[in-house]
Amino acid sequence: MNRSIFLVFAHPDDESSGVSGTVKKYTEQRVPVDLITATRGEKGSRLEVPEGIDTGTAREAELRAAASIMGIRNVYLLGYMDGELYKADIDEVAGKIADIMRRVESEIVITFGPDGISGHMDHITVGKAATKAFKNLSAEGKGPRKLYYVTIAASALPDANEYGVATRPDDEVTIAIDISKYFDSKIKALSAHRSQQDARDLIEMFREGKASGFRQKEYLNLAIPRSERREKDLFD
User: Fold this and answer.
1) Does residue 230 lie in a domain region?
2) Residues 158-203: pLDDT tens digits?
3) Do 216 and 206 form a contact (C-beta atoms < 8 A)?
4) CB atoms within 10 A of CB 174
C-alpha cells in the first residue's frame, strides 16, 4: 500500500468543486493523487464550446487541464454516459473501480456519500460503487485503508437549501482540511471547467463572499473505518 490518495467521482468538475484544495495541499507534499471519473459529462452545459467539438471531448480536455493544475498523477475514465450511470450494473461499476484500485494501491479513497452532496443520481451511484469496491478489496485482505465521503459542514453553508445541497452537522465532520493557502488553486481548477455554468456559478459565489467557509476549508467524513475521532490529517 502506498501513501497516496485515490479519488472516485462521477463527472468532470466534481473533483474541482469538492476537493481541489485538499488535492493541491497533498500533491505539494509529493503525495500522489489519482482520479477516476465515471463519465465524460456529455450532458453538461456547452459555454464557449465550438460547434465542431462534442461536449464529452470538451469536458474531458477541461478535466485533464484541471487535473494538471491540482497535480493529479493519472486520470481514469470509465466511459459511462452522463446522467445514466444509475442504470449501470453496480457490480460492474464496482469491479472496474476495484481493478484500478488494485493497480494503484492507494491508502486513502475519497468519493461521494449517500447524499451525493446535490442528490444527483450519478453522484450517489459512483459513491455506492466505490464503497462496494473498497469493501470487496478489504474482504480480500487488500486495498485502501480508509474511505472518506465528501461532505459540507452545516456552518460553512447555512443556507444550503437555497443551493440544493446536503450538509452535515459540524460535530459529525471527521476532518476539516485547511485550504486557505490553496484557495487560488481551487479557483483555477474550477475555471478550467469553463464550459460549465455550475463551475462559473460557484466561482461567482466565492467572489461575492457567499459560503465563506469554503474559502478556508474542505470537509470530509470518514466512512470506513467509522470513528468519532476528529482528525488533523488524512494519514492519521
Assistant:
1) no
2) 888 888 899 999 998 999 999 999 999 999 999 999 999 999 998 9
3) no
4) 22
Distance (Å, rounded) from C-alpha 133 to C-alpha 78? 14
In a domain, residue 9? The reply is yes
The β-bridge relationship of strands 217-224 and 175-178 is antiparallel
Note down the domain range covering 106.
2-224
| CATH code for the domain in which residue 58 is found | 3.40.50.10320
| Alpha-carbon gap, residue 191 to 130, rounded angstroms | 27
Report the alpha-carbon distance of residue 13 to residue 192 in Å, rounded: 9
CA 95 centroid distance within chain: 19
Q: 60, 186 in Cβ contact below 8 A? A: no
Specify if 229 maps to a domain.
Answer: no
Q: Whole-prediction pTM value?
A: 0.96
Q: Report the alpha-carbon distance of residue 38 to residue 156 in Å, rounded.
A: 28
Cell matching residue 47: 459555454
For residue 74, the surrounding DSSP H or E stretch is strand 74-80
Rg of the chain over Cα atoms, rounded to whole angstroms, equals 17
Residue 236 belongs to some domain of the structure: no
How many structural domains does the chain have? 1
The separation between CA 31 and the C-alpha centre of its own chain, rounded to angstroms, equals 17
